[in-house]
Amino acid sequence: MTAPRENVPPPTAIVTGATSGIGDATARALYEAGYNVLLTGRSLPTGEALAADLGPRARFVAADLTSSDSAQHIVRAAYAFGGGLDVLVNNAGIDHTGDLLTTPMETVRAVFETNTFASLAMLQAAGALMKKLGGGSIINITSRLASIGVPSMSIYAASKGAVLALTRSAAVELAPHNIRVNAIAPGMTRTPLFEAWTAEQDDPAEAAQRAAAGIPLGRVAEARDVAGAVVYLASDAAAYLTGISLPVDGGYTAT
């Protein structure tokens, strides 16, 4: 799962939610590391443009991960494209901010469908193939909010906390099949969602500065910071790591 050697076929990775933010940066980083990259997302024009920008070892498959057959379809497409499956990056997700006591259950279910159940379905489909192929690496993108409490973020935090619990249990259950399962917990990251949030504030620049001031390293993460952690956990350098949650938050959860 490191960069390919001469006469050795490139390893293959799936990146869900690949069309923006952390997913886009992760797809680029894995491609640069030598992977075949199967990209998924809902926007066909954006996804195809990204694949074309990356090059011949990238392919995009449009998919709604909340559909019952999407996970199997994506995994089959990755195997057909790359001839194997070495890495799954479960990155697709939706944000939610709202009052815990008044959020309709319909909204709660929608958040869990994308953030939790879709990740589980992808893990099942990819894990089944990796088991046949002799192993692999599954990396779930969770959140700092899976481990801390923040007002108005309870629903989102619960959906990501469930994925963190899944990560730990799956790591133990799949270890005999040489499948490593880890999580990355980003802190505030400069993505389109972050930019949209700051734009809604009375003073966007001040809001961004205030967010950075609460982080020990003094800045909001860039998407490439998270992507670098993904490449590491996917690689042979992390061959003895499974069941961990790696915080990429500038020290926020250490305070």
User: Would you tell me which CATH topology applies?
Assistant: Rossmann fold
Overall residue-averaged pLDDT value: 94
How far do the termini sit from each other?
34 Å
Structural class: alpha/beta
CATH-wise, what's the superfamily?
NAD(P)-binding Rossmann-like Domain
Q: Tell me the strand order in the biggest sheet.
A: 3-2-1-4-5-6-9
Tally of distinct domains: 1
How does CATH name the architecture? 3-Layer(aba) Sandwich
- Main sheet makeup: 7 strands, parallel
Low-confidence parts: none
CATH class category:
Alpha Beta
How many distinct helices?
A: 8
Taken as a percent bin, the fraction of beta residues is: 15-25%
Task: Give a summary of the structure in a few sentences.
By secondary structure, the chain is of the alpha/beta class. The protein has helices spanning 21-32, 44-54, 70-82, 105-133, 154-174, 192-199, 204-213, 223-234, and strands spanning 12-15, 36-41, 58-62, 87-90, 136-141, 179-186, 189-190, 221-222, 245-248.
Task: Write structural notes for this entry.
By secondary structure, the chain is an alpha/beta fold. Helix 3 (70-82) packs parallel to helix 4 (105-133). It starts with 11 loop residues before the first strand and ends in a 7-residue tail after the last strand. The radius of gyration is 18 Å and the shape is globular. The protein has a single domain, classed as 3-Layer(aba) Sandwich (Rossmann fold). The longest helix has 29 residues, at 105-133. The mean pLDDT is 94. It has a seven-stranded parallel sheet, with helices on both faces. A two-stranded parallel sheet has the order 7-8. Strand 4 (87-90), helix 4 (105-133) and strand 5 (136-141) form a beta-alpha-beta unit. The chain has eight helices and nine strands.
